[in-house]
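Re-run with default settings, no changes from the original entry. Doing this only to confirm the output is reproducible before filing.
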Amino acid sequence: SRSLESTKIEDVREALKLVNQAAEMTVADLHLLSQIKVSKVQLDKVFDLIIPIPAIEDGASKKGVTYAENRRDELVDVYFDRGATKGMMKGLQGNAFGVLQAVNTWVTHVKPLQGNRFERNIERTIKGGFADVDKATMKALAEVLDKPELVAAN
């Protein structure tokens, strides 16, 4: 008969093993993403999917178009390591990991939101909002790069 304490220790060890496996998979996934090249043309297409610019001829207001263009400009600045997040994206351009990191950094630090950014980021973390952002980014990359395995892996 095993004691309750040894069972708890074994449960904790198993949980830590799962966390370690997840971390190893994440490192491997990020390494893989860093090997996938993304051209400027492909980047523009991904950003079109992430932040679509509505067309006035399709009924969008000038204000709506300007708002979307400003958000896109912010995201481009993050990707190219300019503006408020300068230094966070140094050397990450030109590959799928850089795109994923840029979108996540933009959402975390730049994208306009209501309320306190710290509280919203905590809430987004708890509710899985950042995972949703990453999944949407991976879906856009998979579509533009014609790599459906990027979505299947998530």
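The CA atoms of residues 29 and 153 lie 9 Å apart. Residues 4-35 form the longest helix (32 residues).
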